[in-house]
Amino acid sequence: MEIYLKYIGKFDVPIQETQSEENPEAEKKRKQRKYHREYQQKRKQAKLAAEAASQQKSA
């Protein structure tokens, strides 16, 4: 894909390569981030459920 811009001339769009195949460290970080996201969502849901239960008891 070639793009020509008046102020800089020809511009080549960089091709994104898959990082997981080339860098196992990136794959490990991606898995850790996914785990932590899911863990935080579970903690948030548990906290909201506990708050809802305490509000129902007091009401």
- Tell me the total number of β-strands: 2
**Series of H and E elements:** EEHH
Percent of residues in helices: 55-70%
Class derived from helix and strand content: alpha+beta
Count of alpha and pi helical runs: 2
Rg from alpha-carbon coordinates: 24 Å
Cross-sheet strand order for the largest sheet: 1-2
Mean pLDDT: 82
Runs in which pLDDT lies below 50 for 5 or more consecutive residues are none
Strand content: 5-15%
Cα end-to-end separation? 64 Å
What does this 3D model show about the protein?
This protein is of the alpha+beta class and 59 residues long. 66% of the residues lie in helices and 14% in strands. The chain has a two-stranded antiparallel sheet. The N and C termini lie far apart (64 Å).
